[in-house]
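Ops channel
N.P.: pipeline sanity check, posting one input/output pair.
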């Protein structure tokens, strides 16, 4: 699991690499909320 949150500018993101399933997207969201100390 990630222990740091980082950002990337849209200019650096040139090529679509793929897409997350709804299940995987929810897992990413949950990890971000944990890192920010926010309860769902």
């Amino acid at each position: 699991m990630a222990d740091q949150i980082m950002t990337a500018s849209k200019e650096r993101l040139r090529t679509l690499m793929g897409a997350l399933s709804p299940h995987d997207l929810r897992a990413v969201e949950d990890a971000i909320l944990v890192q920010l100390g926010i309860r769902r």
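N.P.: looks fine end to end. Residues 11 and 21 are 24 Å apart (CA to CA).
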